[in-house]
Amino acid sequence: MRLKVLWPGRTRSPEIKNLQSFYIEKIQRMSKFRLIETKEARGIDERNQQKILKIESEGLEKYLDRDYIICLSNKGNEMNSEEMAQMLKKKALSHPYPISFLVGGFLGLGPKILNRADFILSLSKMTFSHELIRIFLLEQIYRSLSIIKGINYAK
Question: Model's pTM, two decimal places?
């Protein structure tokens, strides 16, 4: 299974960066994995949302080819950990290209990226910061891989 996670900009919080590294190391022990931090729209007034989303979408698109694209959005489909594990396992067997998870910046993902998605996933109906949701996603990827490989994971 080849997995990629893409998001605009670097994680700024040192505490979140530490957790990010913790989960990435665990994931890389079980799967080919690549984290890609793409171009972040900086120095643009927040009122110019379309321009920000366009810049960030273009940065993400550069790293997508024939990937199976899973976009994170609070308007997406919810699933439990076992369902996510089964979806990843099924896609890994049927799709020869990477499975890519896309996380938006503070404004989320642009409509062009969302329209390109093969699946839109919601990790919660609640809204979380774009940096914190990165940890939730990495933890769920690690949990899914643990389920697929039959490794006990503390609940």
Answer: 0.94
